[in-house]
């Protein structure tokens, strides 16, 4: 169903490139082609910036050099927060932990001792997260999180999306675990939703993989050697210009 058009909606949704999580088949093929190319040139893994580059190229969008709030990639008024997670069983994994940036209660709220009042610290962490979402929504709507789960061999993948959420701080209670990290749990269910690490201020969101997540594989190509690659582009030593050499 399309989103209704409202006269007084300042943030009415744009025309979405595709329905949430319903990736067109050609898009999956293009993503797979990028991965095969990376394998061909000898890459052994895909990091977050790689995934942002791939997705932006596939949709004809822009990959920011640094996030705008939580937004990494944009296209025609839409934005995505790009995440990739390594898991040895992408087809069967049910739960993931998404590293979602750094939230510093000290920098943002002057909380120098995060353990003195755990509930206050947890609320501050979520307030920082919510503000980053607000920044993204000032420029884009909708904003989605896009997750690529990969195995270590880069042959099996799971792909899904969700809309980015703001969280009500009153819905969560915070505890300290045995490692000294803070964990945020839903008051109504007791489920763990967040982990925050005082050392480094890393914020992690615990996410369930939806049943309708896309699953696909790629075939590993032969790896092109450096000599072969240079031959293919007709490289010669004149391409290298030495401007200064202290070795001789």
Which features does this protein show?
alpha+beta, 248 residues, 6-stranded mixed β-sheet, 5 helices
List the helices and strands and how they pair.
Layout: H1 25-40, H2 48-59, E1 62-68, E2 71-75, E3 78-86, E4 95-102, H3 105-109, H4 118-139, E5 143-150, E6 156-163, E7 172-176, E8 182-186, E9 192-197, E10 202-208, E11 214-217, H5 226-232
Parallel strand pairs: 3-5
Antiparallel strand pairs: 1-2, 2-3, 4-10, 5-6, 6-11, 7-8, 8-9, 9-10
Helix pairs in contact: 1-2
Compute the gyration radius: what is it?
22 Å
Taken as a percent bin, the fraction of beta residues is 25-35%
Overall 3D shape: globular
Largest sheet: 6 strands, mixed
Give the spatial strand order of the biggest sheet.
1-2-3-5-6-11
What does the model show?
With 248 residues, the protein is α+β, with helices and mostly antiparallel strands. 25% of the residues lie in helices and 29% in strands. It is built from five helices and eleven strands. It has helices at 25-40, 48-59, 105-109, 118-139, 226-232; strands spanning 62-68, 71-75, 78-86, 95-102, 143-150, 156-163, 172-176, 182-186, 192-197, 202-208, 214-217. The strands form two sheets. It has a six-stranded mixed beta sheet with strand order 1-2-3-5-6-11. A hairpin with a 5-residue loop joins strand 8 (182-186) and strand 9. Helix 1 crosses helix 2 (48-59).
Question: What is the structure about, briefly put?
Answer:
The chain is an alpha+beta fold.
């Amino acid at each position: 169903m399309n989103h209704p058009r409202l006269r007084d909606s300042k943030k009415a949704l744009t025309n979405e490139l595709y329905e949430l999580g319903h990736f067109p088949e050609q898009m999956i093929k293009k993503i797979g082609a990028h991965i095969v190319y990376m394998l061909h040139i000898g890459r052994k893994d895909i990091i977050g910036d790689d995934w942002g580059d791939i997705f932006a190229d596939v949709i004809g969008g822009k990959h920011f050099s640094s996030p705008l709030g939580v937004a990494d990639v944009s296209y025609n008024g839409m934005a995505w927060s790009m995440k990739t997670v390594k898991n040895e069983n992408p087809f069967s994994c049910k739960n993931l932990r998404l590293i979602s940036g750094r939230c510093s209660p000290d920098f943002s709220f002057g909380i120098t001792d995060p353990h003195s009042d755990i509930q206050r610290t947890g609320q501050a962490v979520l307030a920082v997260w919510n503000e980053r979402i607000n920044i993204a929504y000032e420029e884009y709507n909708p904003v989605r999180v896009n997750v690529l789960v990969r195995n270590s061999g880069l042959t099996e993948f799971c792909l899904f999306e969700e809309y980015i959420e703001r969280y009500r701080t009153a819905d969560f209670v915070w505890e300290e675990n045995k490692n000294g990290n803070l964990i945020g749990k839903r008051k109504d269910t007791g489920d763990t939703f967040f982990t925050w690490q005082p050392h480094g201020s890393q914020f992690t969101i615990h996410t369930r993989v939806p049943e309708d997540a896309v699953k696909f594989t790629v075939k590993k190509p032969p790896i092109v050697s450096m000599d072969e690659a240079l031959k293919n582009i007709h490289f010669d030593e004149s391409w290298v210009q030495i401007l200064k050499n202290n070795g001789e």
